[in-house]
Amino acid sequence: MKRSRVTWGIGVLLPVILAAAPAFADDGPPKLDSGDTAWMLASTALVLLMTIPGLALFYAGMVRKKNILATMMQSFTICCIVTIVWMVAGYSIAFTPGTPYMGDFSRILLQGIADHIVKGNDTQAFVLASGIKGVPGRAGMTMSVTQIATAAAALGWMFAEWIAKGKPSVLGAASGAVAGLVAITPASGFVLPGGSIVIGLAAGVGCFCSATSLKHMLGYDDSLDCFGVHGVGGIIGALLIGVFAFGPLSASDASPDGSPGGMAQFVLQCEGVASTLVYSGVMSLMILLVLKFTIGLRVSEEEEREGLDIVLHGEQVF
Predict the structure, then answer these.
(1) Residue ranges per domain, the chain?
(2) CB 300, CB 287: distance < 8 Å
(3) Exposed, middle or buried, 24 (CB in 10 Å: 0-12/13-18/19+)?
């Protein structure tokens, strides 16, 4: 009985599916659709979460405690490497005509992708993920360069640490990823994939040097490397906009042709970075002076030895 019902259901549905096929085929050439774009971006984010932290935590839970970090590092590093490989050659092999078995190499390094960047307000892509109405079609480019720069920065920090200390650490790879995210944040809407990979590598290596050498050289207290990663990473990203900015991406009603990278833009970025450093430095100094003469800037050495969890909160993690 069950088998006959299944057969009957297929017999009913198959003609409907076959009848609908020509309708799909007659839709004409594909067009950029805001819903499709938003769905692809959201799906990409979900797949990324599946890899890190999903797979990293899944496989780490299947090994002994002494192998957890090494297993997590494999998932994290593979994700970064595959991102760069896809950007360099994978996309071209998968999506260009080529042969019946693989594409050609006409889109190496995503070459020519700038020709397809849409200016203006032609689509409201990424509304689903961003919650902002009227986001232009370059939202996909913004997400792509963010992924690429993050992967490049993680690998840059990892290899710099490998060379300097003999071993790459999981904390270092994660810190490099954060550095890449910081650096690409000011530039993500204004650079192409080629520029983003350079920004990521510069941020990874630059922030590693800042967190491990500059801090000790200048003698400032930054136990969590906030300035070394966020401060230096942000400076690198802001300055490199002046080098890699792509005109149409930065187009506006006031400047339809955009502001491509060049000496004038680089000087403008330098002025912005300098003014930000002065403003934040002066304001931070004022806040620190107020804290110093009220509640103090740090606890006593005895309280440091006992631990802030016990001293401040009366509890600790075992």
Answers:
(1) 33-261
(2) no
(3) exposed
Share of the chain above pLDDT 70, in %: 78
Return the minimum-mean-pLDDT range out of 10-14, 48-52, 212-216. 10-14
DSSP letter at 114 equals: G
Query: What spatial distance separates the first Cα and last Cα of the chain, rounded to whole Å?
Result: 61
Q: What share of the chain is helix, strand, coil (3-state, %, to 5)?
A: 70, 0, 30
Q: Residue 108 in contact with residue 88, Cβ under 8 Å? A: yes
pLDDT in tens, 54-74: 989 999 999 999 999 999 999
Residues 229 and 271: their CA atoms lie apart, in Å, by 21
| φ, ψ at 49 (rounded to 5°) | -65, -30
H or E element at residue 220 = none
75 token code pair: 């998932």
Q: How confident is the model over 283-297, as a mean pLDDT?
A: 93
The full length of the chain comes to 318
Range 158-174 average pLDDT = 95
Tokens of 307: 């631990």
∠ Cα 60 172 307 (to 5°): 85
Q: Is the pLDDT of residue 118 over 60?
A: no
The phi and psi torsions of 137 (rounded to 5 degrees) equal -65, -10
Q: How confident is the model at residue 270 (pLDDT cuts 50, 70, 90)?
A: very high
Q: How far apart are CA 183 and CA 151, in angstroms?
A: 12
